[in-house]
Amino acid sequence: MKKLNSLFKLQKLQESLAEQRESPKSCIAVCGGTGCYAYGAKDVHKAFKDEIKRQRMKDKVDLMLTGCHGFCECGTLVVIHPEEIMYVRVMPEDVSEIIKESVLKKNIIERLLYIDPASGERIKYEHEIPFYSRQQRLVFGSNGLIDPTSIEDYLAIGGYSALSKVLFDMKPEEVIEEIKKSGLRGRGGGGFPSGIKWETCRDAPSPNGTRYIICNADEGDPGAYMDRSLLEGNPHSVIEGMLIGAYAIGSNKGYVYVRNEYPLAVKNLGIALEQAREYGLMGEDILSSGLSFDVKISRGGGAFVCGEESALIASLEGRMGEPRRRPPYPAVKGLWGKPTNINNVETWANVPIIINRGAEWYSRIGTKGSKGTKIFSLVGKINNTGLVEVPMGIKLREIIYDIGGGIPGGKRFKAIQTGGPSGGCIPESLIDLQVDYEKLKEVGSMMGSGGMIVMDESTCMVDIAKYFVKFLTEESCGKCVPCREGLDRILDILTDITEGNGKEGDIELLEELASVVKDTSLCALGGTAPNPILSTIRYFRDEYEIHIKEHRCPATVCKALIAFTINEDKCTGCGICAKKCPQEAISGEKKEPHKIDQEQCIKCGLCRDLCKFDAVIVS
Amino acid sequence: MEKQHDNVQDIIKSYGGSLDSLTSILHDIQSEYKYLPEDALRQVAKGLGLPIIQVYGVGTFFKSFSLKPRGRHQCTVCLGTACHVRGAPAVLEEMERQLGIKRGETTEDMQFTLENVNCLGACALGPIVVVDGKYYGQMNAGKVNKTLAKHKESPTRKKDEKVKLSI
């Protein structure tokens, strides 16, 4: 029987598990995040398993399929502990060599090392790679050290000690005070101080004492996937945070509302909950402390608006995910009319760290109004795509160049989009901006859940504004008029502009419409929806004007305003474009430069993608 | 009347028939039958004590549910921001052209259903396409044909034709 019924038994178990981990055995950690899965991590893991079996090395080496390490650009990642030798882009055929050379003889295989593009040097160890060395991985760091499907791994690195600390050494009020003092703010978008939220929920009247705790894992922002990686890679840290919240707030029922598009997160979370129950860390009378708490998983249906608290609650109640007017806030009147505290995944994962290390220590990280670290997903036109955890207040430049490794293909950085579809685009001139809740808001964007999409000179800002508005139009639940109709009209105007039908006065009309939508929408989705339009007009007005006045798209993105032609000097007349053109718009003699018939061309871009000589020009 | 879907009752029961599981129940039904059959929706409404309009409402509100039968091969194009800036729209258009359907539709022979998703969180590989759970990264319009070909069932009719010809 594994069930732990006292603090003593938990501590004993943690100690013995930690001792076991101390063994000098090598451990191969294969990254099993969704990114690496897509690269084929499963095959690599299987190859290691087979090879270890074949060579009868089970007692010499451990194998672990971990959660996401964050450096998605270089998957599949393999790290060999205790040396921390890191190999990138590992394929199944590399496996036997890794075992033979690196595990048995401790030799480094040069060709599998990461090459720093700045210095051209090969880097041996994980912590020396600039992508990692400049981060501060408080929340995310354990991902690479544990098997997410093993509660023993989490216990061995000190997991659930924050829970035992609050259960046996702290009063609920003291826990809330600690969270307040830490300065932790919601990591999901709003940035509301978590301690105050908890206190409001605890103090809200509930006749039968029922209060709910919800973990918002409906990560709908395209280009943001830190919550998924946390749930996949370290689900127990989220569960522990929720347990601490339940104790502080006085709740015995919790929910995790998670996107169904994240099958691995749903699976690992389910395993983790089952294990926590087996060990008596979830359920009735946890560790004989008197706290009873259990969590149910509810899968969302892929609606962006359900990230909004009141819409999420509506969906949990079995209704359509439409938001309602606030106040009353969910902390006072939430699920089934009871006080409900909602925090997102990353916020919950911060809680055990604050309790373990203390609010004072935590609040020393970050800026005046924004404490701790934040995980960003750095994606788009960037060399080192991946998840990065950095202290609040870090400069954008450091994130983009020092950690992200700059822009690929020698192109110029143009803008960075933060805060998801309802965030804003920040131009190159503000690259030294310090990233925190206030500063991002000042420049017309927001923190959101932490998506950072890097754009280079080949990104059209009008097209980007149109992309976000289109996304929001589709995701608008349709309940209130300003958001439903306003966004639709904005999309019409933007479509006209990108198709060369823009008129004088369109920009001003867009600004007016946007401000109406912003002021009069029912929920935060509508209230922030105009951000992408307003911020792109604010910083890239000239680009709008060129589209409208000159009917030109300087970034050569907007289809109606561009033309495909063939560079006669580069074309070898291989004929592949002519063969594949769906319109049969390309003609020419063999080995002679070809030509595109502009009348026929539908600008599908197939010829450009297929041409091996870069002879197709877009202008 | 459509044919009865027997497993629906078991699915409802496995969630204890509580309202907070409506979306989860619908997900399970959909993974069983690949869509939400009308008869199944009626059974859910009855099982949870809800008006059918509410179950229908939830079934149509959320993107991941389909009330129409889907094809044998599920083809999903990611249109997340990271994929968008790297050229995903051109990939989707080429998919639409090659399959002869628009996004959200199923080919007449019920082979392919084409859909788009807002983000798969595998942004390093963008633009990304998923066919039957297999990820294809760094896509462009030029690669669409080959990718689809890998999943197209070699039509048995073709074999038959060959046989006929040889006779």
Task: Describe, in plain words, how this protein is organized in 3D.
The complex is a heterodimer of chains A (619) and B (167). With 619 residues, chain A is of the alpha/beta class. Chain A contains 24 helices and 19 strands. Chain A folds into 5 domains: 25-131, Glutaredoxin (3-Layer(aba) Sandwich); 151-362, Rossmann fold (3-Layer(aba) Sandwich), CATH 3.40.50.11540; 373-456, Ubiquitin-like (UB roll) (Roll); 461-550, de novo design (two linked rop proteins); 563-618, Alpha-Beta Plaits (2-Layer Sandwich), CATH 3.30.70. Helices cover 40% and strands 14% of the residues of chain A. In chain A, a hairpin with a 3-residue loop joins β3 (78-81) and β4 (85-87). Chain A is globular, with a radius of gyration of 26 Å. By secondary structure, chain B is α+β, with helices and mostly antiparallel strands. Chain B is built from 8 helices and 4 strands. In chain B, strands 2-1-3-4 form a 4-stranded mixed β-sheet, with helices on one face. The radius of gyration of chain B is 19 Å and the shape is elongated. The chains are: A alpha/beta (619), B alpha+beta (167). At the A-B interface, α2, β9, β11, β15 and α18 of A face α2, α4, α5 and α6 of B.
Task: List its salient traits.
heterodimer, A: about 625 residues, alpha/beta, Glutaredoxin, Rossmann fold, Ubiquitin-like (UB roll), 5 domains, five-stranded mixed β-sheet, 19 strands, globular, B: about 170 residues, alpha+beta, four-stranded mixed β-sheet, 8 helices, about 10% strand, disordered C terminus
